[in-house]
Model the fold of this input.
Amino acid sequence: MPYLTSSNDFRSDTFTTPTKEMFEVVSSSSIGDAVYDEDVDTLQLQQKVAEIFGKEAGLFCVSGTLSNQLALRTHLLQPPSSILCDFRGHIYVHEAGGLATLSQSMVTPVIPCNGKYLTVEDIAKWYIPDDGDIHAAPTRIVSLENTLHGIIYPIDELLKIKQFCVENDLKLHCDGARLWNAVVASKITDPTIYGKIFDSISICLSKSMGAPIGSVLIGDKAFIKKANHFRKQQGGGIRQSGILCKMAMVAIESDWHKNLQYSHDLAHDFAKYCENLGIPLECPCDTNFVFLDLEKCGIDPIFLSTIGEEKYNVRLMGNRVTFHYQISRKSVENLKLAIKEAVEYAKEHPFKGSNANKIYRAIEK
Ligand SMILES: Cc1ncc(COP(=O)(O)O)c(C=O)c1O
Ligand SMILES: C[C@@H](O)[C@H](N)C(=O)O
Done:
């Protein structure tokens, strides 16, 4: 099926497509060489994102993976070192082992005791102190994700973790690919709170915000200056990035609160529908993701995505159903028909296969 629009694409919010307005602004974008900090639209976007989330400076990156990897590399001075994160964290599961190769760092993947997000108790239990034990790779960074699997991090827990990091000389990074969603769902009126808590934040513009390309890494000036050095080293120093930054600025200047709330409302409605069908959720539906425990209902994810595409014109991948502002209500109705058929089919043909190819891990209950 030719890829037409994202209105029926529930695979990820990375499938959001540029708007007509984004294409229209391209012709008036600045055309300076961003490697020399001479591109006005790039400088403006970097500063805008830094100001929104309360940091001194920003650095445009072509992907969230690059933004995360630069942040963590910049915080690290020399091996041996460890980075503590949630065992489901993108930096650990989905960034191709970049921390090992680009940062020569170990990772301590931790399963949250509360089944949702790491608490300060989880971190205190699993962090590796720099106490002179030559067997160890001491923890240098705690890297959190907000949201992670769509789960919101409570501010009071973040503040406790921040305090622990300060007391133990640890850097605190946030993979904020969907921090915009957390702001809307938590009804945060002043997002600079996150800049007060985290030493660095990677903010994606290409997911729920709908820009075609780009993330911005934010931090203090000295940190961003060093991250820029690593960005050049890793080939991320791009030239006329004003084209991309102007498009991204359209997303920031849009009514993103309304857009993201729409996607959250669709997700919450679908989550309720699935639970009423007897499909448990793998984790709470706080924002735009619905993680279904298909295994518990004997539903084959391949069967679901196949009938979804061939019979109901919806695009699905695995057990994560993603909502974004370009999803149409008609597509949600089609999605509900597809999941209903999959439930009925599973009653007669329960799927007992392996979920080894599951790219989104769940916490065993
Ligand atoms: C939580 C999270 N962090 C980082 C990334 C990486 O972003 P990118 O795909 O632009 O590298 C993603 C991907 O969507 C993500 O879901
Ligand atoms: C697959 C993963 O890298 C991507 N960030 C997503 O959420 O779809």
Summary: Residues 256-348 form a domain with the Aspartate Aminotransferase, domain 1 fold (CATH 3.90.1150.10). Residues 14, 63-65, 68, 90, 145, 175, 177, 204, 206-207 surround pyridoxal-5'-phosphate (ligand 1) (CB under 6 Å). The chain has a mean pLDDT of 96.
